Amino acid sequence: MTPSLPALYDAVEHTWPPARRITAGPWMLRVGLGGGKRVSAATAVADVSVSDLAQAEIGMVELGQSPLFMVREGEGELDEILADAGYAIVDPVTLYTLPIGRLTDVPLPRVTAFCIWDPLAIMREIWAEGGIGPARLDVMARAQTKTAILARWKEKPAGTAFVAVHDGVAMVHAVEVLPHQRRMGVAQWIMRAAALWAAQHGAKQIAVLCVTENLPANALYQSLGFSPAGRYHYRNKPQGEDKPNGS
Hints:
Elements: H1 5-15, E1 20-24, E2 27-31, E3 43-44, H2 53-62, E4 68-72, H3 76-84, E5 88-99, E6 113-116, H4 121-129, H5 134-142, E7 145-153, E8 156-166, E9 169-177, H6 186-200, E10 205-211, H7 215-223, E11 227-236
């Protein structure tokens, strides 16, 4: 059975965790320490109104972060409040899921993929080529049940990814394949290796997040049988327009 959307959002939160969470009125603020939007965005934890917006904005500025909000499905009123306040949509994301057995039915070719934690230097180098640096590696380290995948192809390192399990859901993050090793099935073997490891750690579903504009990645996940289960997007203000309302 596909997990509920709140359960999937919860899995995202726990498999890619911020350094700290702060409750401020109807908001959850996150301390990201440079780890990207997902660990830095504020979310609503109760009904919000226009008058609540300044509290979140001021709180994020005091944390040294530009105001940034994650808007999930069913939060249309919040979306309107942010739009009216000048916040623009950034990085719409699709959350895909698949029963884990759909990726554990084919054995991995020998020496194709390995589960390794802590990440090896070559894995860190592959991630760095894709813009995934130390701050995001720190995010990975904060997750509980986790591993990383090192893929090899033609007897050379080819790609890497991070996978963590929360409450029966395996979330795969930071999939990165070296440019000269793409279009050879490497990402497929990474996903299958992640599923095999996750099944051994209690996962029943495997999930992945994909920015809407990343057409090749969306096509990959759909070709493996993943189905859209939810969406979210961020809203921020254009640079130079992030002064808190009412300040």
